[in-house]
Amino acid sequence: MDFGHVAATITGLxxxxxxxxIWIGGFFFFSDVSxxxxxxxxxxxxxxxxxxxxxxxxxxxxxxxxRSKISANLFKGLSPWMDNIPGRLVHVNILACTFFAAVSGSxxxxxxxxxxxxxxxxxxxxxxxxxxxxxxxxAGTLGFMIPPSMVMLV
Length: 154
Description:
The chain has 154 residues and is mainly α. The protein has two domains: 3-47, no CATH class; 50-153, no CATH class. The chain contains nine helices and no strands. The termini are far apart.
């Protein structure tokens, strides 16, 4: 194995660990603690906590809104307000994500919930799928910026 393959492997592992928010590279190389115990400890600490309990409940709340047709009525109510804005109902994604992110604080819950509600409604009204998903992806990140953010809670 030559130096290029080793460097590419180490760089790939570094990107994988840092991109996955697992900062264990230094611990692995500079201590005698086993790799598996560090990884298990980090995984347990990141998923065990009362703040992570809120995430499934917000997704469940969005599912209730979707199944009860409240979301469709809300969409019908917002559509006349958006007629004068270029892009019209695509801005409903942004407004809905803003309001839901302010309530939930989670970008994942916001994107899943609002996407479940708005994408089918936009498809019924013959909007471009890529445009609908793009506005949802952009607006779904508002959960990080609007308090109470899940990131701040964790």
